[in-house]
Amino acid sequence: MPDIDLHTLLTIVALGVVTVITRGFFLISDRPWTLPHWAQRGLQYAPIAALSAVVLPEIVMSQGQLVQTWMDARLFSAMAGAAYFFWRKGVLGTIVTGMAVYLPLHVGLGW
Fold it and tell me: Which parts of the chain span the membrane according to its record (predicted)?
């Protein structure tokens, strides 16, 4: 069994305590707790903000650099998927449309 440093052990225990306290904070109170209206309204935008933060860099960047050419299948598939979504408002159709544009361009033309 490897030697465990006292500082490492204390750090792990302290992080565990902080995690339990922060996650159990809402269970400690005996009265119902609600978010203010402005916070509830702001949280409505959290999923789209998180999705944008993950997906958008994958579309416009390649190996840490901005895409330098229009011959990139990701750009056209993202535009086609966005157009479909604004036209029909369907998530499955958006994915299918994006992939229907992406695959021929990427696999067929090598973009």
Answer: 6-28, 48-66, 86-105
- Read off φ and ψ for residue 71, nearest 5 degrees: -85, 60
**Both structure tokens of 24:** 């159990």
**What's this model's pTM, rounded to 2 decimal places?**
0.60
C-alpha 94/C-alpha 15 separation (Å) is 42
Report d(CA 74, CA 109) in Å as an integer.
Answer: 13
Please answer whether residues 71 and 111 qualify as being in contact, where contact means their C-beta atoms are separated by less than 8 angstroms: yes
DSSP reduced 3-state for 62: strand
CA torsion 98-104-105-109 (nearest 10°) is: 170
